[in-house]
Design brief:
single chain; mainly alpha; Serine Threonine Protein Phosphatase 5, Tetratricopeptide repeat; 11 helices; 73% helix; 0% strand
Length: 198
């Protein structure tokens, strides 16, 4: 069987409701990952991170995430970046985390876009730059990411790197709330109460 077929077989086994399905699936994922098949490397890494069908092993997870990144699996950029930012399974490196978030964002991963904005906002692995943070949050917010909508709203309300625009900020908080980001409502109410304007 080719690696892609082995991977598809592993997915089918994982979906089965039989006993030890994940354990069996991991065996096939490992076979496909050993042939450097990117999606299998990524899936196996996630199993190792969460202890699904296999004992948790963060170093091995990072190893397979690196292989998945090398194979071009978009979500792997984000997951490996998290490992580098937190130092889980690899030596902690905010610069590497930033670089991986950047690459993931450029490839279209929404979580990477959001985290890249956070890196620019706080200066994680890169020089702090509110303008770049705003641009990245705006891009993710326009794609419907509620957390980015919230942060964009807060930047506008507090004037982080720009003129204060409370009205526009509250509009973004409202969008974040509508899209399910619970803290947005509480924050908007607090701001309105303190300002007694809206």
């Amino acid at each position: 069987m080719k690696a892609v077929e082995i991977y598809e077989h592993a997915k089918r086994i994982a979906m089965a409701k039989e006993k030890d399905a994940m354990k069996k699936s991991v065996e096939f994922l490992r076979q496909a990952a050993d042939e450097d098949y990117g999606p299998a490397c990524h899936a196996l890494a996630l199993c190792l991170i969460h202890g699904q069908g296999v004992k948790k092993d963060m170093k091995k997870a990072a190893f397979y995430l690196k292989k998945a990144v090398k194979a071009g699996v978009i979500k792997a950029y984000y997951n490996l970046a998290v490992c580098y930012e937190t130092g889980i399974g690899v030596r902690k490196s905010q610069k590497r985390a930033f670089h991986l978030y950047y690459l993931g964002a450029e490839k279209g991963d929404l979580d990477s876009k959001k985290e890249l904005a956070r890196c620019y906002y706080y200066g994680i692995g890169v020089k702090q730059h509110y303008g770049f943070a705003y641009g990245r949050y705006y891009g993710a917010a326009m794609l419907g990411d509620a957390e980015s909508q919230f942060h964009l709203g807060m930047m506008l309300i507090y004037g982080d790197g720009m003129n204060v625009n409370i009205k526009a900020g509250l509009e973004w908080l409202s969008k974040a709330e509508i899209n399910g980001f619970a803290p947005a409502k509480k924050e908007a109410e607090r701001i309105k109460k303190n300002l007694k304007v809206f």
